[in-house]
Amino acid sequence: MRDLSSIVKAYDVRGVVPDQLDEDIARDLGAAFARFVGGPAVVTAYDMRESSIPLSRAFGDGVRSQGVDVVDAGLGSTDMLYFASGHLDLPGAMFTASHNPAKYNGIKMCRAGAAPIGQDSGLTDIRDAAAAGVPAADGEPGQLTSRDLLAEYAAYLRGLVDLAGSRPLAVVVDAGNGMGGHTVPVVLADLPLRIIPMYFELDGNFPNHEANPLEPANIVDLQQRVVAEGADIGIAFDGDADRCFIVDELGAPVTPSAVTALVAVRELTKAGDDPADRIIIHNLICSHAVPEIVAEHGGTPVRTRVGHSFIKAEMARTGAVFGGEHSAHYYFRDFWRADTGMLAAMHVLAALGTSDQPLSQLAAAYARYPASGEINSTVDDQAGRLQAVEEHFGALQGVELDHLDGLTVQLPDGSWFNIRASNTDPLLRLNVEGRDEASMTRLRDEALAVVRA
Predict the structure, then answer these.
(1) How far apart are CA 298 and CA 257, in angstroms?
(2) Which domains does the chain have, with CATH numbers?
(3) Residues of the chain with pLDDT under 50
(4) How many CA atoms lie within 13 A of 68 on its CB side?
(5) Active site amino acids
(6) What phi, psi does 132 have (nearest 5°)?
(7) pTM of the prediction?
């Protein structure tokens, strides 16, 4: 039996090709996936990496070996695959390593209706079955058909957010040589938007910069281009285009927490009589401005752990209309509770296009408190350093602690931080927010001193 534990992560399959992930493994994973989800067919899509087509085809061969049909949607973003799974009501598999370097690839899997599959909801079973080997089923293999869903995906999104009435906007889009270069020209065509493309050429070697806009170095080109063009807004997508990052007309980043609050307010304006229409999910490292603004607009904020499986589970449990994470994943009930960077970007464009304010002023209403951003510390003993942090701050007067995800420390003045252990690296991840810049800096430095002692 092969050991696949190194490539089967909490939410997906991911590894170096071909050393860790090759076509034989993909074929076995496809067979195991088909057995796990059941049903007559599976839909697949893939990104622009050189290894994505052969891995996708091998996975499809494994699916078909179980007598299950494969609908090949071809090139697409991850959220286009979620659309396909929801629209066709089929289980799906997306071949991408998202923002990881070129030598990586991976598989994101979901049940019909884009319902997530993670380690606690089936991925471990699929891993174990693939490791043991899945024999071909009796009878004829499944059929393979191709279906281009890009136009239907675009039409669906445009039906959710109407941009036709927007004032003219100059929009710089950095696709990072990823799948945004494939989807943006179709989704945002024939609208009052002048799209200024950057790195739209599909290239899984990422010749210009890593397709990970969460790293500040990777949006420098976008920031400079927005200012040089005198554009109204800049949008950066990650490699598989399921996340979007926003830059204002001054070249300054708009935090994902501010985007979460902005989109939440737009969703709340459409709320009907159903209480679920007013439920907004946010993870615990989002700015405290998010639940404050949600409540001020008549919404019900619900705090959850970091990670898409937790967000999606909470959305399913509560019927929430929208959810946001500080990592720039945005989840919509109208999109099968799946995350879509494109739909979030369209909401920001719609808000800007119907406002007479520049984006810097519009976004300022949703950004109240200074934050550190995520700071990673390499440590030998994650549990020991977390315990040291808890003992240090727990001894202070008026401090509140909770353990929903890692350790969150709330100070009496409203400043707070969360510290969490990485699942994959010997790191502790620290996020700090203060009521003002001085309190944030002071708390950040005090927490880091304990972590790195």
Answers:
(1) 18
(2) 13-148 (3.40.120.10), 152-251 (3.40.120.10), 256-340 (3.40.120.10), 375-451 (3.30.310.50)
(3) none
(4) 28
(5) 98
(6) -80, -25
(7) 0.95
